[in-house]
């Protein structure tokens, strides 16, 4: 495969489209679009989100030490994108988008009601990376859309319809079709070698 070198930049995809939900000391809700998000540990369950230090979201997290990460379904692309275009320091994005938020199980945590997967987090620690802060949150609860599950407890991810962000291209896409079973498909190669 012939390659073109892009230099040291941040083009990498796919990235998840998430809404980080926080509140300030006056309980004013804020929603921020974030795609630099990922699970970084299983024990303890930990999620990390990289935030520019000037984000209202970062200030809220530092004040309350809690936040939620909410998976964005494709149908909410416009509302979620708006939450990436303007800061909560100048606009009320909760009102602007009309997105309903509901309390989580931890005090001070709010969840986007229309998101099929909400992750409740407690601030664990952070790493300074230039202008960014890699904030790690201990996952204290996950809420997954009830209607996604069948009688055997298997979730059909098509009902989640996650919005996928293509960083570098600045485009949102939907998930395609299932390609293979993870932790399983590669075993054919191992069997061949044995
Ligand atoms: C698709 C997309 C992904 C983004 N991902 C991040 C991110 O991971 N971290 C970040 O600091 N800003 C990210 N932003 C920018 C913030 O969402 C934006 O600056 C927002 O206005 C900050 O809101 P706040 O000040 O209310 O927290 C992203 C924006 C978009 C449109």
Describe the structure.
By secondary structure, the protein is mostly beta strands. It has one domain (15-193): Electron Transport, Fmn-binding Protein, Chain A (Pnp Oxidase, Chain A, Roll). It contains 4 helices and 12 strands; from the N terminus they run E-E-E-E-E-H-E-H-H-E-E-E-E-E-E-H. The longest helix is centred in the first third of the chain and has 9 residues, at 56-64. The radius of gyration is 18 Å and the shape is globular. Flavin mononucleotide is lined by residues 30, 32-36, 50-52, 55-57, 81, 84, 86-89, 165.
Short structural summary:
The chain has four helices and twelve strands, in the order E-E-E-E-E-H-E-H-H-E-E-E-E-E-E-H.
Feature tags:
Pnp Oxidase, Chain A, binds flavin mononucleotide, seven-stranded antiparallel β-sheet, 37% strand, 4 helices, 194 residues, mainly beta
The CATH homologous superfamily is termed: Electron Transport, Fmn-binding Protein, Chain A
- Tell me the number of structural domains: 1
- Would you tell me which CATH topology applies? Pnp Oxidase, Chain A
| Architecture per CATH nomenclature, i.e. the level-2 architecture | Roll
Structural class by secondary-structure content: mainly beta
Please tell me what the overall shape is.
globular
Order of neighbouring strands in the sheet with most strands: 3-2-6-9-10-5-4
Task: Please report which band the strand proportion falls in: under 5%, 5-15%, 15-25%, 25-35%, 35-45% or over 45%.
Answer: 35-45%
How much is the radius of gyration in Å? 18 Å
């Amino acid at each position: 495969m012939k390659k073109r070198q892009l230099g040291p930049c941040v083009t990498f995809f796919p990235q998840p489209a998430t809404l980080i939900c926080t509140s300030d000391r006056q309980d004013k809700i804020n929603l921020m679009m974030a795609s630099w998000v990922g699970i970084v540990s299983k024990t303890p369950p930990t999620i990390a989100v990289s935030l520019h230090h000037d984000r209202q979201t970062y200030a809220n997290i530092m004040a309350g030490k809690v936040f939620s990460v909410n998976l964005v379904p494709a149908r909410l692309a416009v509302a979620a994108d708006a939450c990436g275009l303007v800061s909560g320091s100048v606009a009320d994005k909760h009102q602007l988008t009309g997105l309903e938020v509901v309390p989580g199980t931890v005090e001070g945590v709010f969840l986007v009601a229309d998101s099929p997967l909400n992750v409740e987090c407690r601030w664990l620690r952070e790493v300074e990376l230039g202008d960014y802060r890699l904030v790690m949150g201990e996952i204290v609860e996950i809420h997954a859309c009830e209607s996604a599950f069948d009688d055997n407890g298997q979730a059909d991810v098509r009902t989640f319809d996650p919005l996928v962000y293509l960083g570098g291209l600045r485009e949102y896409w939907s998930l395609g079709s299932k390609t293979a079973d993870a932790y399983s498909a590669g075993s054919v190669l191992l069997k061949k070698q044995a």
